[in-house]
Design brief:
The two termini are about 45 Å apart. The strands form 6 sheets. The protein has a 6-stranded antiparallel β-sheet. Helix 1 packs across helix 3, helix 2 packs across helix 4 and helix 3 packs antiparallel against helix 4. Helix content is about 25%, strand content about 25%. The chain has 2 domains: about 190 residues, no CATH class; about 160 residues, Glucose Permease (Domain IIA) (Distorted Sandwich), CATH 2.70.70.10. The longest helix is centred in the middle third of the chain and has 27 residues. By secondary structure, it is of the alpha+beta class.
Length: about 400
């Protein structure tokens, strides 16, 4: 078994998957000059990790028969580049990407007249914790442990190799950069694996998880039987209006609804024989203002009937356990005068379907089974504590 080769293949596989998931767009131009010729390009790494101070920049070496000292690295993305020094026809530039949301990840050299230099184009990969979270979180525990073991073994091999490599060699710098990148991956995996072994926190920290049979999963909702599945998918936690609610796990925000109005309930589809998908979408409308949290277990928690959602959070943010995110409000269901202030939250259980990894949509999440689906009300009431700390 060639474990080292398997690890190299695994790392390459990660990069390919991220290319597929997030897209790489290359821009070429016919507006090229020929006063300098690029003979060779070298990078310590093609990866930039935007949210890490050690990895959010890179050095690029160009070999050329012309003077490149007056050039700068440019791209469609906003960036900062700087010529560092040159020696023996080698020119070193440093680049920082400033626009984290840009989708065009191609760099090129251009002169003061903004004319691009032939053969200077370089593709780079922009990562952050949120993107890598998606890469790993869809795997079950066994796959994650296997990935983690391979990363740890690669780190150990690189550390041993660095002991016998001259510090001034380009290969030393290249391996050092690779080591730091793998440690970034390792840290993210550590957070995911550690939190997978923890119970969920209560979303309202000072209130108990409901045990009343009309406020727990599988309670009947006959008044909406014609346009939903008439089943309650989660828990209602009764609390005063605008009670603070918190993230019950380490995870990622995948959806936010902030501007729900009573008139939005007019969008409910209530004609006869509506499809299952329409019923799922109707339930989503009934949730009003909401936040969806993708947890370390890659369950999806649907927080519903909210008033103010914190402006400090946005979709794709990674949040820690016990992070304040929103406050409770009312549901307006079954009628506008319904003033039962509470937080409704459902936990949709990740089915870990291998051929769906990285392919789930927001609608898919709504179709997942909820925790305790079809269990008796007595069972749910007596066993909910096993899920929460």
């Amino acid at each position: 078994m060639n474990l080292k080769g398997d690890i190299k293949l695994f790392v390459n596989y990660i990069i390919i998957l991220i290319f597929v998931a997030f897209g790489v767009v290359t821009v070429f131009s016919t507006d090229l000059i020929f006063d300098a010729q690029i003979d060779k390009k070298e990078l310590l790494s093609k990866n930039i990790f935007l949210d890490d101070s050690k990895l959010n920049s890179k050095y690029i070496i160009f070999e050329s028969n012309g003077d490149l000292s007056k050039y700068k690295l440019s791209s469609v993305c906003q960036n900062y580049s700087k010529f560092i020094w040159s020696k023996d026809n080698k020119f070193i530039f440093k680049i920082n990407i400033l626009d984290q949301n840009c989708k065009n990840w191609t760099l090129f050299l251009e002169n003061l007249e903004k004319v691009k230099l032939k053969k200077s184009f370089i593709k780079i990969n922009l990562f952050n914790r949120s993107k890598l979270f998606d890469l790993y979180i869809d795997n079950d525990d066994s796959n994650l442990e296997n990935i983690n073991s391979k990363i740890n073994l690669t780190i150990k091999n690189i550390e041993n190799k660095l002991k016998t490599t001259k510090i001034k060699d380009f290969e030393y710098l290249k391996q050092k950069r690779k080591l730091e990148e793998l440690k970034y991956h390792k840290n993210l995996l550590k957070n995911i694996l550690e939190n997978r072994n923890k119970k969920y926190l209560k979303p309202l920290l000072w209130y108990k998880i409901s045990k009343e049979k009309n406020k727990i999963p599988n309670a009947w909702r006959p008044y909406r039987s014609s346009y939903t599945d008439w089943i309650h998918h989660g828990w209602d936690m009764v609390a005063p209006n605008e009670t603070n609610s918190y993230s019950l796990d380490y995870g990622k925000i995948v959806k936010i609804v902030r501007d729900f109005k009573y008139s939005n309930l007019n969008n409910l589809k209530k004609w006869n024989n509506i499809s299952y998908i329409d019923k799922v979408k109707n339930l989503d409308i009934l949730r009003g203002n909401q936040v969806w949290l993708k947890t370390s277990k890659w369950d999806i928690v649907l927080y519903s009937h909210l008033t103010d959602v914190s402006n400090n959070i946005k979709v794709w943010d990674i949040v820690n356990r016990k992070t304040f995110l929103w406050t409770t409000w009312i549901s307006w269901v079954p009628d506008r005068n319904y003033k039962n202030y509470h937080l409704h939250f459902s936990i949709m259980k990740n089915p870990y379907i291998k051929n769906k990894i990285w392919k789930y949509s927001l609608i898919d999440y709504l179709k997942w089974d909820w925790y305790f689906k079809w269990k008796s009300l007595d069972y749910v009431s007596e066993n909910s504590f096993k899920l929460f700390k």
